[in-house]
Design brief:
The protein is built from eight helices and six strands, in the order αααββββββααααα. A two-stranded antiparallel sheet has the order 1-2. It has a two-stranded antiparallel ribbon with strand order 3-4. Strands 5-6 form a two-stranded antiparallel sheet. It has 308 residues and is mainly alpha-helical.
């Protein structure tokens, strides 16, 4: 069967356009360093890359949350450390005041120092982070611990944070994974008594000041010293629980970083080109294109004289 000139020309042009299209595709890939540049290049791969991008964005959001929460717990730890130091100093003062070698004037001096440490304690428990109080439960904009006085004398500490049993803030640190923070300051109040006879850190401190005024060495050396230990233990326990949360957060941070690296690696496999391989493919298509042009010149220049 005789192949017509028009068929040869048409076939040549189709092949030439195909070669040119491939050259342009590889040029674009080399320019963008990406395997696909539009949905039509590979719809399935583009869909997978978009899903990976969304996962990376979500993971980056968790990364920010985890970092902020770690900073938050570090601030809490520092505050509880200062509160512990203040309570330990108060315990030391109670122990000193219980000594028979102390007189009324000595105990009044000790009383003034205890009062100063009470403010150091409440200042520590009123620590805020980014404008939010860290032990106020859900009432993060309200100063949680307030010194109460009557006629100029200390009578206790009032807690103004969340009081309805929902005082814990939670943070989502991974898909479907949340962590509760130790923000309920009621735990630091250490309520042990009843409505009729309350017993907490505030009443303990008030009782210390009363015993100092009364020179009650029996109360100072006995009940009050024991209660001081309990209040210190309570703060230390909360600090320990905050430390456990911190450890869990740092572990979550490591998992988050690993997850990001894995996602980026998978995305790179699907999206990024192998530069050496792609350049070789481009060179081959460029050579094929030039060869097609050379062949086409002969085909299209054929005239009737070639058949005589």
């Amino acid at each position: 069967m005789r192949v017509t000139d028009s068929y040869m020309a048409s076939s040549f042009l189709n092949n030439l356009h195909k070669n040119m299209s491939n050259v342009q595709k590889y040029q674009e890939q080399l320019s963008s360093l990406k395997e696909v540049n539009r949905p039509s290049d590979d719809p399935m791969k583009v869909s997978q890359i978009l899903d990976l991008n969304n996962s990376l964005i979500q993971n980056d959001g968790y990364k920010t949350t985890i970092k902020d929460t770690i900073d938050f717990t570090n601030v809490q730890d520092s505050a509880l450390n200062h509160a512990t130091e203040a309570m330990q100093r108060i315990r030391t003062l109670v122990q000193q005041a219980a000594s028979d070698t102390m007189n009324d004037d000595n105990r009044q001096i000790i009383k003034k120092e205890v009062e100063a440490e009470i403010y150091t304690l409440t200042d520590a428990l009123n620590t805020n982070f980014g404008g939010k109080y860290v032990f106020a439960g859900m009432n993060t904009t309200t100063k949680p611990f307030e010194v109460v006085k009557e006629n100029g004398e200390f009578t206790g500490i009032q807690y103004n944070g969340t009081a309805n049993g929902s005082g814990k803030l939670t943070r989502e640190i991974a898909a479907g994974v949340s962590i509760s923070l130790k923000t309920d300051g009621r735990e630091l109040m250490n309520e042990q008594g009843s409505a009729e006879k309350p017993s907490n850190i505030g009443t303990f401190l008030s009782d210390v000041l009363t015993a100092l005024d009364a020179n009650d060495t029996k109360a100072l050396s006995g009940d009050l010293l024991a209660r001081a230990d309990k209040e210190i233990d309570n703060i230390v326990t909360m600090r320990s629980e905050t430390g456990t949360i911190y450890n869990r957060l740092t572990a979550a941070q490591e998992r988050n970083e690993t997850n990001s690296l894995n996602l980026e690696s998978i995305r790179s496999e699907k999206q990024d080109i192998d530069l050496a391989e792609k350049f070789m493919q481009y060179t081959m298509e460029q050579t094929a294109y030039q060869a097609s042009l050379a062949m086409g010149t002969k085909i299209l220049s054929t005239s009737i004289l070639d058949y005589l």
